[in-house]
Each structure stands twice: as structure tokens, then as C-alpha cells.
């Protein structure tokens, strides 16, 4: 596995579920080309999943965003003391510290506005999911590995 996509968020809180939705839609399109994980939240165990990856995409909802965006990530300088404060940068730090793994990492942020109970996404979030799926798929097909 060279590319890992981690879609995270609460699928029962409207637009917060965009990350898992992207991972699920990519699974139907790309099959074996990448490893796809759909998780409720980031946890320390995900650092071990990153060991085999050259590139990791973290996909999440973005409150206040207007259009989807991709940010290059760098590892955090320290691991947080509280387990509910895990961020992609923290997992990069753990992957390096524990496994000497240094994948290139991106944070794909999808604008979100509706967080009511339910699985329905807003039009803005649905558009962002479509953009994210097409963006990741195109980069993987073009490069073989996902180097944006």
C-alpha cells in the first residue's frame, strides 16, 4: 500500500460525516490502489496504519470554509496528553517516533454547515465530497501514488 486515505467524522451528525463518506465512495472507485479507512475520530492506533504508506490523506469537515481545500501537513512537535485531542499532525509525529515512518501527508478539508442529527449532508458538503473523491482519484490515477 502506498496511499492511505483516512476519512474521519461523525456520520450521524450531518456534514460532520463527509470524511467517512469520501472514503466509502473512493472504495467503490479505486479498490486495491489505496487503503481506505472510515473512522469516527483520530486515535493513536492510526499511526501504525501509516507505516506502509508513502502518502496519507486526512479528510474531514471544515466549519467556516467556503470551498474544499488541501493543506500539506507537517508533524507536531509533541503528542497531546489528552486522548480526545488527536490531530493529523500528532499522528505523523507518532508514526515517525514509534515506527520511523515519514509519509507525505495532506489534510483535505470539506466545507460543512449542518450538524443536526441525521445522515443527510448539505448541498455544500455533497459538492465537497464529490470534489474530494474526484481530486484524490485523479491524482492516484495520474501519479500512481498520491503526491499532490
What does this protein structure show overall?
Strands 2-1-3-5-4 form a 5-stranded mixed sheet. It has 148 residues and is an alpha/beta fold. The model has no long low-confidence stretch (mean pLDDT 88). It has 4 helices and 5 strands; from the N terminus they run βαβαββαβα. It has a single domain, classed as Rossmann fold, CATH 3.40.50. Strand 1 (3-8), helix 1 (18-30) and strand 2 form a beta-alpha-beta unit.
CATH homologous superfamily placement: HybD-like
N-C termini distance: 17 Å
- Elements, N to C (H/E): EHEHEEHEH
Helix content: 25-40%
Q: Evaluate the radius of gyration.
A: 14 Å
Count of beta strands: 5
Question: Which outline best applies?
Answer: globular
State the major sheet.
5 strands, mixed
Q: pLDDT under 50 segments (min length 5)?
A: none
Read across the widest sheet, the strand sequence of neighbours is 2-1-3-5-4
How large a portion of the residues is in β-strands, by DSSP E?
Answer: 15-25%
Summarize model confidence as the mean pLDDT: 88
Number of helices: 4
Supply the CATH architecture: 3-Layer(aba) Sandwich
CATH class category name? Alpha Beta
Offer a few descriptive terms:
148 residues, 34% helix, single chain, 4 helices, alpha/beta, 23% strand, Rossmann fold, five-stranded mixed β-sheet
SSE blueprint:
Elements: E1 3-8, H1 18-30, E2 35-39, H2 46-49, E3 55-63, E4 69-73, H3 88-99, E5 104-112, H4 123-143
Parallel strand pairs: 1-2, 1-3, 3-5
Antiparallel strand pairs: 4-5
Helix pairs in contact: 1-4
Short description:
With 148 residues, this protein is of the alpha/beta class.
Amino acid at each position: 500500500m502506498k496511499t492511505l486515505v483516512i476519512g474521519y467524522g461523525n456520520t450521524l451528525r450531518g456534514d460532520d460525516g463527509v470524511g467517512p463518506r469520501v472514503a466509502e465512495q473512493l472504495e467503490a472507485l479505486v479498490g486495491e490502489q489505496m487503503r481506505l479507512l472510515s473512522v469516527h475520530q483520530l486515535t493513536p492506533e492510526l499511526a501504525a496504519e501509516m507505516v506502509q504508506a508513502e502518502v496519507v490523506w486526512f479528510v474531514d469537515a471544515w466549519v467556516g470554509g467556503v470551498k474544499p481545500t488541501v493543506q500539506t501537513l507537517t508533524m507536531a512537535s509533541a503528542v497531546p496528553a489528552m486522548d480526545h485531542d488527536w490531530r493529523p499532525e500528532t499522528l505523523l509525529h507518532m508514526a515517525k517516533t514509534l515506527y520511523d515512518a515519514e509519509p507525505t501527508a495532506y489534510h483535505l478539508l470539506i466545507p460543512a454547515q449542518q450538524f443536526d442529527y441525521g445522515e443527510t449532508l448539505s448541498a455544500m458538503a455533497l459538492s465537497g465530497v464529490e470534489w474530494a473523491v474526484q481530486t484524490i482519484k485523479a491524482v492516484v490515477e495520474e501519479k500512481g501514488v498520491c503526491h499532490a
